[in-house]
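Could someone model heme C with this protein?
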Amino acid sequence: MQRVQGFRPQEIKRDEVRAITTYIASFSSKARIQVVPKHPQELAMYNLGRELWYTRAGPRDMSCAVCHDQYAGQRVRLSPVRSPKQGLGNEWPAYRFEEDRLYTFEDRIDFCYESIGIPKPEFYSDVHIALATYILAEATKAGHSFEELPFFTR
Ligand code: HEC
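Reply:
Sure, complex below.
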């Protein structure tokens, strides 16, 4: 948006980004996930994403893997938890009725970061790109497809 369309950062409205993300994602409804890093920069993002996934941090010394891999297929409190190999990430953007608004994948990742006391990363940062690349590449290997997008979830 900044480089090609000439927007200044302060002019970018998050709600408009959510809207265009949802519009574009709707064309991938039910499609096979096909994130296969090949270019060196894609591989670098995949490797960074894997590192972020497993690195324990924050006041509770938690990592994504502690919940999503260790408890994969089980529940944390009432919520079912999935691993990337079980298709984690295949339902975003989604309308979360608990929060009464639309979430992108990045919004959802931030929700987990905040729930374990780690400040959420900047939008469009390497952290978001790397985690999305890692999670969706693992879902690709396991042969998952996207849900109907936008999805509707808790
Ligand atoms: C304390 C345990 C915990 C940790 C740590 C955690 N999550 Fe979650 N995560 C959950 C729970 C519980 C849900 C809700 C599952 C549901 O309601 O479907 C969830 C949901 C998600 C979802 C959406 C669910 C889906 O199926 O698409 C994504 C994406 C996600 N987490 C990513 C992450 C990432 C990335 C990290 C690391 C930065 C992380 N989570 C760390 C517990 C955790």
